[in-house]
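#help-structures
NK: newbie question, is this the right format to request a structure? protein is LLM class flavin-dependent oxidoreductase
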Amino acid sequence: MEFGYGILSAQNPPGSGKTNAGVYQEIVDLVQVAEESDFDAAWTAEHHFMPDGHSPSPLTLCAGLATATETIDIGTCVLLAPFRHPIKLAEDAATVDLLSDGRFNLGIGAGYMEREFDVFDVSMKERAKHVAETIHICREAWTEGPVSHDGDLYQYSDLEVEPKPASENGPPIYLGGTSQQAVDRAAFRGDGFIGNANMGWEPSDAGAGEDGFDHWGDQSNYIAAEHDVDMDDFLVGILNYCYVAETDEEAWETMLPSFLYTRRAYAEHSKDRDPDEFTLENLGEERIERLKENLLVGSPETIVERLREAERGAACDIHMLLRMWQPKLNFEENARSIRLFGEEVIPELS
């Protein structure tokens, strides 16, 4: 099992007392703590037009992290492919790969927030085409010699695209998503898939997942059964919220307000989601109990037990992509969780 530290969205909640510059510096410092604590990767994120400053530029942040670290992988979870020309993306990704000396992972997604598509003048109906052509064009651009493309969305001929990445054949490309169709696309086109752990939502809950994967290993088992994929070389990344403290009670008391904040922030910019559901009063004890059964929040012993359960149920090694950076917490609160995970969880599962 591998462990990724994220999601580095650089959100700065109202009333935090932090400057945006301070938030970005804190992220760099925390990724250095994660590297020292033997995490395998750090992951950035992308959204636009959110009032809390959610990072719109994951590659720029990746470049900064690449130069501030030495061993930890740096990746995007996820970069929104429809909003970038694939040639420019190929150039920028190659640059980050060079800055990191081959430690860069390109996670891409199709996007789902309608306002982003409206502002960037991109049709949501064509987002799958954007992802497909982006993958093809990036891989072609990272090879030697001139490249040409004649697709539905992009056309060019005899382009010399430089620089070439440090990684042979370019960085791996992982596809994000929540549905079975997204898993199918990743298995067909990508080098891996990044999806969500089930957080215990019932179908009637606001923000319920769209997929039918009830357990953390289900995506890997589905891919192994339905697709001709070498599971030793195919990354299955599972996103789950995480916070570690000395006791379960301390972990939940510290982390829950930040969890609710992030869910509200996304709900405010998502179709058919009510942000008012994500308050302590409206969430309700029943849903909170389901969250406590499914999120990776608690003491090191609790976290190890749940991760061992996930490991037993998977068809391959899972990359646990931990939503461990909590925007409402201060540096020391975030750093303590990282260090405790590195000291008492990682050694039990390595």
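mod (FA): yep, format's fine, and the tokens are attached above. Residues 2-349 form a domain with the TIM Barrel fold (CATH 3.20.20.30).
NK: thank you!
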